[in-house]
Structure formats: structure tokens, C-alpha cells
Write a structure and sequence with these properties.
Blueprint (H helix, E strand, L loop, with lengths): L2 E6 L4 H12 L6 E6 L7 E6 L2 H8 L8 E7 L14 E2 L5 E6 L5 H10 L10 H15 L3 H11 L4 E7 L2 E10 L4 E4 L4 E4 L11 E4 L4 E6 L5 E4 L4 E2 L4 E2 L15 H7 L1 H9 L13 H4 L2 H6 L2 E6 L1 H18 L3 E5 H4 L10 E7 L5 H12 L3 E6 L5 H5 L2 E4 L12 H21 L4 H22 L2 H11 L4 E6 L3 H16 L2 E6 L16 E6 L5 H12 L4 E7 L11 E5 L7 H19 L18
Parallel strand pairs: 16-17, 16-18, 18-19, 19-20, 21-22, 21-23, 23-24, 24-25
Antiparallel strand pairs: 1-4, 1-10, 2-3, 2-4, 5-6, 6-7, 7-8, 8-12, 9-10, 9-11, 11-15, 12-13, 13-14
Bound molecules: fructose -6-phosphate (F6R).
Length: 614
């Protein structure tokens, strides 16, 4: 969602800001803008609906000078996406310019109060209220900018990451956050502010992650200063980034999504590396070994997540129940947080999130902590809010995922859940030593097997042409492959805009089978597992009603080919790991169908990569 970039230093701020906005494009947005301060007393603001390229066109013949500036990509929440609602926003006097990511819940009350004292508003956004509130406090209380920001944020209810500049002070950039991420980059005589580290990594690998209710003062020629909303000074903790810039580029692929699909055999290796010993006889997840007592005594495991991460959680639930014999539940974070769930002190809540910034998942984590559960995070982005808010956790280590549709993060999440399951099951003695070693062996074979799946690109591309016409799709699977069906349908929906539903195959006869006719493609995931025969029967039911079936089968299956219309083969692995292989052809199928339809695969309409509002 909204992206923030700020710069103060010796470089041309415009170049840093535009490059930074481009790096943040993956988060999803519908307008973009920036403010630059060429000299004291002057502020130039350019903003427009549409992409960063349009902003660049708009600013082409304008004054782009200045070494201090802020920039923003907006994903509309309050107020339609247009030029006026785009950020930055100005205060009434024109002195202050501000960008904001998040939602101010009490903005109507604050706006009414400001209107009563003579403020008028140009936009319909909640953000413009904040910048005017800061100015009002500064004027009426005679405070400096930092204290005014502090006072204003104490009145605000909601989530924010903001960056503010004052046209009368060309040496100061202020940032603050609560529930929306904000990272400070520390260079030589320069500072950067951004929603995540991707706009910063090109210039410095030293970053400070702001915590909730912290304000950072970045003054030219001085050390950074952090204070909290009660004015307590906080010592900045500098982290070193290990992000490699090349992973933020497409590397010859037409889209990030395709690049990320193809990276999976390597990213799974990265995910496993350091966790399975060199002999392949032991899995060590430090988050589990350091909290062994919690896992041994766990009454229940409750997964909280959204979207694709929620699908990974459904697979995690099956693994945990099958091998660890701990009751496991999967909750949509957005539902869980608002329904006063029963959470016991011996429950373990596992939050799964690629970005580590999803607002609902973060709120679910906070709720679980309040109720005294032990909270474990499975995140990709190092240093993200959820990674820091949880008691312990495991990173999936698949590297930055830029394509909006999640691919390598999903397989990384499932792989991490598999390692978590194996570790807990061994500790609790719910699997035999032989089974333990066998599971690890299967895990280690995955990267190679993924390469085999990825070689089917041409076949899947050809098949995609047959199905591009369709307006609806059904995806079917059972057991471990049911969440894969959900995930396959979600991938297709989000990037091709074709309506698709995932179902447990046996549920079809309870209603959805009425939809089946020759126009309805059905993707059936029917790999050789313990319920293979049952899945075949379900496919027969579809075929009997003239359905057109594309089946995903295990290598060497010579039964299904006689029943269905098209077949894609995947190598055989241990049943609980099958989703890691069977999800890949579905990612490719969705990708090629979307490309055939001319969709903007990496930036599908209305979607944001990091959903930082609820
Ligand atoms: C789908 C997709 C989304 C995310 C969801 C949760 O391809 O990317 O459904 O999975 O928004 O995001 P994270 O995992 O960052 O919490």
C-alpha cells in the first residue's frame, strides 16, 4: 500500500525520490506525488493520479532542484484517487508539507474542530487533517515542529507513518510511525526515510526501524534523534541490511512474477539452508529450540494470516495435526481480531505474513499477546513489524518478493511450516526416528524437483492459450491439495481478473457441481496421495457433466490421462510436501493466462502488496 520516501543530504532529492517511488511501486498505488525544497521559504509540490511515470512527465519542465524532499505513492482509502487527494498535502499556510500512510480513524472529529477555527480543506483525505492539526498546534501553542507533531499524534487515533517538512527550515525532515512501517537509512551526511528498505539499499546498508509512537528528527549535519510521543529520548539501534540490489531488478525476465516463480528452487534452498544439518539427519529451527517448553506444553496452535499466507496456514494446520498431534486452527486475521476469540495461555498463535506489515495480522498478534498466548511469526521481510512484535519466529528467507501476486513466499512459508512441524513432532515424540529422517530427505529433494516442474513452462504456456477465453474457473483438490486449489484460484483471480473458485473436490456435489458445463474449465489437483482414488471419483463426476478438466498429476500416472482433457505432471514427493510442487504449475498457468489477456501482471488493478490498512 502507500509508499513513503524522504531524503535530506547533498544529492538532488528529486532523483532519490523518483527512484525510491519506483522501488515501492510493487506495493500498489493509484496516484503519486512529491514535495521539494529548492531553498528556504520555497516548496514545490507535484502530484498526479496514475503511475510514477506520469508524475515524471508532469514534473518534466518544472523546477526539480532541492536536496530535501518527500514523496509518496497513494493507495486510496479516504477519498477517490485523483490529483487533489494525492499526497503530499499542505497545511493551510502552505508552510508544512506532509505525506501519510495509514488511516486516521477520528479524522472527522478532528476536521470538524479545525473547521470551527477557520481551517478549510482541499481534499477529502484523512491525511490533510493531520498536517493542519500540526500547524494549528504549532501556531496556537508556540511549539517547535517536533513538539507540534508529538502533540498532534497524541490526538490521533489510527495508523500512520508520516514524513513532514517545513518550508522555513530547509535542514529538517521529520518522520513518525504507528502501526505503519517506517525505516530510516543512515548515510554519510544524509538520511533517507522509506516504508521499507528497498529505496534505501542503493545508498546505504545502515538502517533504523522506527517503533510505534516514535518520531525521528533528521537534521542536516547532525546525528539523528528519536523521541517517543511522551518525549522520552530513544537510542537508535542501527541494523545492517544484507539485501542485494540485483534481487530488486527483473534480471532479464519480462515480469517480477515470472522471475520469482523461477527463483523458487533457489529460494527453497535458502529457506532450508542452515536449518538442516550437512548430514541431512536433523532440522534445527532456533525459534523452536529456544522455546522448547512452550511447544512441548502447547494446548492448541492457532494460525492467523490473510490471503495467500492464510492458504499456507491451512497446510500448516494439516501438518501440525497429522504429525504433532496438536489441535490446530486457522483464522482470518481480520475476523479473529474483532470477535473476542478464546485464547488460552498455553496456546501458540502463529502469525504468517510475507510482508510482516499486514495490518490485520499485526492486530491479531497484539490481541494474542494481550491474552498471554505465545506468539510465533513466520515472515519474509526481516525487521518487519510482525517479525518484531512476535515473541519468536522463523524467517522464510526467500528474498524480496516484488510481484504483487505472492509465489515464492507461499512455497517458502509452506517449507518453513514443514520444518516447524518436523521439529515439533520430533521433540514431542509423535513421529518415529525413521519417519523423521525420511521427512528431512524429502525436504532436501525439493529444490531439484522444483526445477523439474519449472521445465514444463512451454507446455503450460500452450495450455494457457486454450483457457484464456474462460470467464470462470473451478479449482479442486483434497487434503493437502485443497489449499493449493484455493491458492491456484486466487492467483488466477488477482492477475487475470477471471473469476475462479477453489473447492474441496468432494464438496462439488453439495452445490457447485450445478455450475459445470462444457464452458467451465476445472483444474483438478490429483497427485498420488492417500485420497487419490477419491479425487478420481470426483473428477469422474465432473466429466460425466461435460466439464473440461485439466489435471495436475504425479509423474508416471497413466490412469487420469484417459479420463481428463489435459494433464500436467509433477514429481512425486512426501504427501505433506506436495503443495510446494503442485502450486508451481498453477502459478505459471495464472501467469500465462494473465499475460495472454494483456494484464499488468506485477501490478494488478486495485491490489497492494503490503496491506497496511485494515
Ligand atoms: C496474494 C497475496 C495476498 C497476500 C495477503 C497477505 O497473492 O499476495 O493475498 O498474501 O495480502 O499478505 P502478507 O503475507 O504480506 O501478510
Amino acid at each position: 500500500m502507500c509508499g513513503i520516501v524522504g531524503y535530506i543530504g547533498d544529492r538532488d532529492a528529486y532523483d532519490v525520490l523518483i527512484k525510491g517511488l519506483r522501488r515501492l511501486e510493487y506495493r500498489g498505488y493509484d496516484s503519486a506525488g512529491l514535495s521539494l525544497m529548492p531553498r528556504a521559504g520555497e516548496l514545490n509540490c507535484y502530484k498526479t493520479r496514475g503511475k510514477v511515470a506520469e508524475l515524471e512527465r508532469y514534473a518534466q519542465d518544472k523546477d526539480k532542484s532541492g536536496t530535501l524532499g518527500i514523496a509518496h505513492t497513494r493507495w486510496a482509502t479516504h477519498g477517490e484517487p485523483n490529483d487533489i487527494n494525492a499526497h503530499p498535502h499542505y497545511s493551510q499556510s502552505g508552510d508544512l508539507s506532509m505525506i501519510h500512510n495509514g488511516i486516521i480513524e477520528n479524522y472527522v472529529t478532528l476536521r470538524t474542530k479545525l473547521e470551527q477555527v477557520g481551517y478549510t480543506f482541499k481534499s477529502t483525505t484523512d491525511s490533510e487533517v493531520v498536517v493542519n492539526l500540526i500547524e494549528y498546534i504549532r501556531n496556537t501553542m508556540g511549539l517547535d515542529l517536533c513538539s507540534s507533531v508529538q502533540h498532534a499524534l497524541n490526538q490521533v487515533v489510527g495508523a500512520y507513518a508520516i514524513a513532514v517538512i517545513d518550508r522555513n527550515d530547509p535542514n529538517l525532515l521529520i518522520g513518525a510511525r504507528k502501526s505503519s512501517p517506517l525505516v530510516v537509512g543512515v548515510g554519510e551526511n544524509e538520511f533517507f526515510l522509506a516504508s521499507d528498505a528497498t529505496p534505501i539499499v542503493e545508498y546505504t546498508n545502515k538502517v533504523v526501524y522506527l517503533d510505534d509512537e516514535q518520531i525521528v528528527l533528521l537534521r542536516r549535519g547532525e546525528e539523528m534523534k528519536i523521541v517517543d510521543l511522551s518525549n522520552v529520548v530513544v537510542t537508535p539501534e542501527i541494523h545492517e541490511l544484507t539485501l542485494d540490489l540485483s534481487v530488486l531488478e527483473k534480471g532479464g525476465y519480462p515480469h517480477f512474477m515470472l522471475k520469482e516463480i523461477y527463483e523458487q528452487s533457489r529460494t527453497i534452498q535458502d529457506c532450508i539452508r542452515g536449518r538442516v544439518n550437512s548430514e541431512g539427519t536433523e532440522v534445527i529451527l532456533s525459534g523452536v529450540s529456544q522455546n522448547r517448553d512452550k511447544f512441548m506444553a502447547a494446548g492448541r496452535i492457532i494460525f492467523v494470516a490473510c490471503g495467500t499466507s492464510w492458504h499456507a496456514a491451512l497446510i500448516g494446520k494439516q501438518m501440525i495435526e497429522e504429525f504433532c498431534r496438536i489441535p490446530a486452527y486457522v483464522e482470518y486475521a481480520s475476523e479473529f481480531r474483532y470477535r473476542n476469540p478464546v485464547i488460552n495461555e498455553d496456546d501458540i498463535v502463529i502469525a504468517i505474513s510475507q510482508s510482516g506489515e499486514t495490518a490485520d495480522t499485526l492486530a491479531a498478534v497484539e490481541l494474542a499477546k494481550q491474552k498471554k498466548a505465545f506468539v510465533y511469526g513466520i515472515c519474509n521481510v526481516v525487521g518487519s513489524s510482525i517479525a518484531r512484535a512476535t515473541h519468536s519466529g522463523s524467517y522464510i528467507h526467500v528474498g524480496p518478493e516484488v510481484g504483487v501476486a505472492s509465489t515464492k513466499a507461499f512455497t517458502g512459508q509452506v517449507t518453513t511450516l514443514a520444518m516447524l512441524t518436523i521439529t515439533i513432532a520430533k521433540e514431542r515424540g509423535t513421529i518415529s526416528d525413521e519417519r523423521y529422517v525420511q521427512m528431512i530427505k524429502s525436504l532436501q529433494q525439493l529444490p531439484q524437483q522444483m526445477d523439474v516442474v519449472l521445465k514444463q513452462r512451454e507446455k503450460i504456456e500452450e495450455l494457457s492459450k486454450i483457457f484464456t477465453y474462460a470467464n470462470n474457473f473451478i479449482y479442486l483438490g483434497r487434503g493437502y491439495n485443497y489449499p493449493v486449489a484455493l491458492e491456484g484460484a486466487l492467483k488466477l483471480k488477482e492477475i487475470s481478473y477471471i473469476h475462479a473458485e477453489g473447492y474441496p473436490a468432494a464438496e462439488m456435489k453439495h452445490g457447485p457441481i450445478a455450475l459445470i458445463d462444457a464452458e467451465m474449465p476445472v483444474v483438478a489437483i490429483a497427485t498420488s496421495d492417500s485420497i487419490y482414488e477419491k479425487t478420481i471419483s470426483n473428477i469422474q463426476e465432473i466429466k460425466a457433466r461435460s466439464g473440461r478438466v485439466l489435471a495436475l498429476v504425479s509423474e508416471g500416472d497413466n490412469q487420469i490421462g484417459n479420463i481428463v482433457d489435459y494433464v500436467i505432471e509433477v514429481p512425486t514427493t512426501d504427501e505433506f510436501l506436495m503443495p510446494i510442487l503442485s502450486s508451481i504449475p498453477l502459478q505459471l498457468l495464472a501467469y500465462f493466462i494473465a499475460v495472454n489477456k494483456g494484464r499488468d501482471v506485477d501490478r494488478p488493478r486495485n491490489l497492494a502488496k503490503s496491506v497496511t490498512v485494515e
